[in-house]
Amino acid sequence: MIQQLVQRVVITRGVTQEQAAATVLGSDPLDLVLHMEEVWRAANTWAPNVQPGGNARQALINVGAFHDCVPTAGPAWDHLGYAFVLENTRVVQIMRRVVREYRSGEGLGIPSVSTQWWLDGTEALLFGAANPFASWLSTSAVRSDPEAVRRNAYWRLFGVDLAFGTDDNRPLVYDKATAANSTFVQLLEELLYELWQAMENLRNISGPNAADDDRIFRLAEQLAFILRSRRQGALLAREELAASTALGWLDLTLSANTPVVSDLRAQATSPADRLKIIGERVSMAPHSRSASFFSMAADFSLVLRAIEAGYVSGPQFAWLLYSTTAPPAAPPLPPGARALGPESRRVITEWSAATGKSLKKRAVPVEVDGRRPVGVR
Amino acid sequence: MTDTKSTVDFRRTTRGKGAGRRQRGATSEDAIRDLQERVDFLTLSMGTITGYEKMVNLLDNGLAGIAAELQPLRDLTPVRIGDPLGEPVITALGVMRTALDRPDWSAAGSISIADQNVPFIGEPSPRARVPERRVVFDVEPEMAR
Questions:
Q1: Does B111 touch chain A (CB under 8 A)?
Q2: Which pLDDT belongs to residue B22?
Q3: Residue B102: which of A298, A314, A320 has the nearest Cβ?
Q4: Helical H runs in chain A?
Q5: Pick from A76, A95, A113: which residue ends a domain?
Q6: Residue A257, φ and ψ in degrees, nearest 5
Q7: What average pLDDT does the structure give for chain B?
Q8: Is A319–B82 a contact, with Cβ atoms under 8 angstroms apart?
Q9: What is the model's pTM?
Q10: In chain B, what residues touch A315 (CB-CB under 8 Å)?
Q11: Structural domain boundaries, residue A223
């Protein structure tokens, strides 16, 4: 949601993206949370039932600093997959140490005023600092740790845990739901393999063509089935918004040499390099494949949203996931509705790099039979 | 394919032309012989060039024949079926892309926020600022109700 907010500030106020980012990074945490409420209200995930939030909440939204940057009707936040791949870099735990160091001493130096604003925002958005609105609307004494809530959501939707444990490398204890999509990774990797085959053969006019639109459709359909099975009644939507907001905040923080990055003397040319230097400052190494995670996060979000939305509703629409344009016989897509080929290609490349699995060679294929289309534990 | 006639000895030409220039007082027979040699050389060169053209033509014809024989294989290429998306899906795709649109930070440098030096609390300083009071409640009447 944070990166999208920056984009809306650019468009609405006609400023540069650097100015917009500075505005967002230096804003009051309450304004950010109010905008988050506005995004939540605009998405109206429970439609056609009553819209979430009452008049009091709406009145407060209207006095927020970003009330002019009206979000679109669709969910204007990233898919939970965006938060999942970014959190796998260990950025949250590294930034927790940064906050702790700055708040408990002067070991990292004296933070500038801008960095102190950033600390306020980070504590409110990520670490549960008291705020008139909690960004984690659903966190309470029952589930007080935002990281545990996120891990629970990752487990339910993707059937996997993060690549690391607690801050001191012990297994993190959280509520592991019994209903989890344990086949997600297997299905996704098989789909990515098939998409790669289709991309390789996109301009092939002679010889064998290994592209299989029907298999792409079936795998995308199965992924949609299992993702939707965890989303009935818009479940996990609020957790997804909160997770993508929290990780989006850190994504924006590392997108450029922002004030906190400069204060930590971690100026570099990529988010992964900045995180690595910051990690060295607080004695915690990020994931060795952080560059891949940062690189694919936004594209992964788009691809998962499209799959879950069921845009590929038949083999004749499989091209949407691997092509860059509409088929030759079809009219061209309007400028705002581009096909997802470039995003899928980025995910294939970076997922392979991050996991060390080659998606260009066939591993053991998954069974796609009609009797158990949904792999739910 | 080696054609002995196609071998050109460029030294003969040089020697012939030089001989013509060096022997100013040569007889007309020598001049005729010299000219004859040059005509022979030109004839030989023309023959070589014609031979190359024949070879090129032969290759051209051969490749064209192969291409014509392979042409029916195009029909064996699996036809990729691709239907245009329906209007609701195109709209939803456009909304999704707009909703998730984000800035491109690939060439980003620094984002700086101009901070002033902060005076110590209570320090009499011209830099100390009185906080501005702002009235922010401009709620629409019907929303406030």
A1: yes
A2: 52
A3: A298
A4: 2-13, 17-25, 29-43, 55-62, 80-87, 91-104, 113-125, 146-158, 184-200, 213-229, 237-255, 259-263, 271-281, 290-309, 319-322, 341-355
A5: A76
A6: -80, 80
A7: 70
A8: yes
A9: 0.78
A10: 81
A11: 83-377
ipTM for the predicted complex: 0.86
- Clarify whether residues A202 and A253 are in a common domain: yes
Is there a single domain that holds both residue A115 and residue A69? no
Mean pLDDT to the nearest integer, B88-100:
89
Residues A234, A288 within the same domain: yes
* Closest among A29, A18, A17, A36 to A245, alpha carbons compared: A36
**Residue A221 and residue A128 share a domain:** yes
Total number of domains in chain A: 2
With an 8 Å Cβ cutoff, are A75 and B99 in contact? yes
pLDDT score for B50: 76
Q: Report whether the peptide linkage leading into residue B141 is cis, meaning its omega lies within 30 degrees of zero.
A: no
Domain boundary among A55, A76, A97: A76
Q: Which of A63, A317, A338 sits opposite B136 (nearest CB)?
A: A63
The alpha carbon of residue A239 is apart from the nearest alpha carbon of chain B, in Å, by 17
- Number of A to B CB contacts under 8 A, please give it: 160
d(CA A279, CA B11): 77
**A115/A196 same-domain check:** yes
pLDDT one-digit tens code per residue, B103-133: 998 887 788 777 777 878 887 776 655 555 4
Q: What is the pLDDT of residue A128?
A: 77
Residue in B81, B116, B138 nearest the CB of A213:
B81
Tell me what the mean pLDDT of segment B55-67 comes to: 81
Lowest mean pLDDT among A6-20, A30-44, A133-147: A133-147
Q: Is B100 on the interface with A (CB under 8 A)?
A: yes
